[in-house]
Design goal:
This protein has about 190 residues and is mainly alpha-helical. The protein has eight helices and no strands.
Length: about 190
C-alpha cells in the first residue's frame, strides 16, 4: 500500500520534495503518457522527454502557494502532455491524425527500482545543467514568467532570444540525461 492514500497526500509529498511521492507519480502516470505519445507517432524516448517536461511544469506549479488542481492529477498531467505533444507534432510538421484515448486498464507498471533510477538520473541531470539554464527554466516553469519578463531579468535582447535559449536549455538537459550510462535502460 502506498504511503499516499489520497491525491491530497501525494501533492503534499510532492510539495515537500519527497522522493517517494515523485516515484508514485511516475508509477501512476508515466504509462498513460507513453501510450498517448506512442499512439500518436511518437517513440518511447519522446514519451520520456514529454513526461519530464510535464513534471517540470507540475513541480513549478506546486511551488506556488496559490496552485490548486481543479481536476485529478491524472487529468491535469494528461492535458499538459497532450497539449505539449500536439505542439511538438505541429512544430515537426507531422501530418498525423491525433488519437485521444482512455488509458488501458492493463498497462504494465515499471519496477520501483526503475522509477528510483529514473528519478535519481533526472535529479543529477538537473544539477549538471548550467546556472543560467537552471534559472531560465525555473523562471519559466516555476514562476510562470513570460518570455518578455525572462528576457528583461536575464538580460536577453528580446523574448524570441529568451525562447530560443529556453529551447536550448531543455535540449541540453535531455542531452545530459541521455549521456549518463544509466539512461540506456530508460
Amino acid at each position: 500500500m502506498s504511503a499516499y492514500n489520497s491525491e491530497t497526500e501525494l501533492l503534499a509529498g510532492l510539495r515537500k520534495g519527497e522522493s517517494a511521492a515523485f516515484r508514485r507519480v511516475y508509477v501512476l502516470h508515466y504509462n498513460m503518457v507513453r501510450h498517448l505519445v506512442i499512439s500518436n507517432s511518437g517513440r518511447e524516448e519522446d514519451a520520456k522527454d514529454l513526461f519530464q517536461e510535464a513534471l517540470v511544469v507540475l513541480f513549478g506549479q506546486l511551488s506556488g502557494e496559490a496552485f490548486t488542481l481543479s481536476s485529478s492529477l491524472k487529468t491535469w498531467l494528461y492535458a499538459v502532455c497532450r497539449n505539449k505533444w500536439l505542439k511538438q507534432l505541429e512544430k515537426n510538421k507531422r501530418n498525423v491524425r491525433f488519437t485521444d484515448f482512455e488509458p488501458a486498464e492493463n498497462i504494465s507498471v515499471p519496477a520501483e527500482k526503475e522509477v528510483d533510477e529514473h528519478h535519481s538520473l533526472l535529479r543529477k541531470s538537473l544539477e549538471q545543467l548550467g546556472v543560467q539554464c537552471r534559472k531560465l527554466l525555473l523562471l519559466f516553469y516555476y514562476f510562470h514568467k513570460s518570455m518578455d519578463e525572462i528576457a528583461a531579468e536575464l538580460h536577453y535582447t528580446n523574448a524570441d532570444n529568451a525562447k530560443a535559449q529556453k529551447y536550448k536549455c531543455l535540449q541540453k538537459l535531455k542531452s545530459i540525461y541521455r549521456q549518463n550510462p544509466a539512461a540506456d535502460g530508460h
